[in-house]
Known about the structure:
Elements lengths: L1 H20 L4 E6 L7 E7 L21 E6 L5 E6 L12 E6 L5 E3 L8 E6 L5 E11 L4 E10 L5 E4 L15 E6 L5 E5 L4 E5 L7
Antiparallel strand pairs: 1-2, 3-4, 4-5, 5-6, 7-8, 8-9, 9-10, 11-12, 12-13
Amino acid sequence: MIEHxxxxxxxxxxxxxLNSLGKVGVLSLAIAASxxxxxxxxxxxxxxxxxxxxxxxxxxxSSVNAPIDVAxxxxxxxxFIETVTGGLDPSAPGQTVLRKIxxxxxxxxxxxxxxxxxVSIMVDANDNLYVIxxxxxxxxxxxxxxxxxxYKYAADGTVSNYRTGFAACSLIFNATxxxxxxxxxxxxxxxxxxxxxxxxxxxxxxxxx
Length: 209
C-alpha cells in the first residue's frame, strides 16, 4: 500500500507539472516486474491541447484540460478529474468533472450528484468509486446550503454520502480543505482535511470518526 501511495503521488506531481507547462494529458505508469526501478511512461489521453474533452472521443487523440487526479478499476477503466473552467492551474477556482476512459479507449463523463465539484477520487478492490465533492446544494426544506462531502458510488449503483460524524473535521469540503484519500487493506477510507488540520476515517460500514 505504501508503494501504491508513492506511485499515486508521483503521477499526480507529474500531471500537475505537465499542466503548468501546457502539456495536458493523462499518463500511464507501468513498472517492470523484473526491474522494479524501471518505469515505462506513456500518454493514454490528451493531444496536448488545453481544451475540455468531448464525450465519445478517442482518449488518445482527444484534447484534455488540466487533469488533477486519476484512479483505475479492476476492469481497466481509467477515471480522472478534468478542470473544464478556470484555466491550467489546478488550484485555481473552476468547475471540474469526472471523466472515464473505458477499455476501448473511449472517453465519457461519469454522472455524479447535482452541482458536483470532484477534487479527489479513489477506487477500492471491489470497484466502488469514492469522490471528494467540493460542491454544495440548497436544501429546499430548510433553504440552507449543504456541503456535499464524500460520496461512495458503489459498483452495484448504490450511492452513499458521508456528511455527519466527522467530529473535529469540518464537512464544508472544498479544494483547500479535503484534498486527498487513501484506502487500507481492511477497506477503511482516510480523508485528509487541510483547513481543519485533521484526517477523517470512514470504515467499510460507513461509520465516520
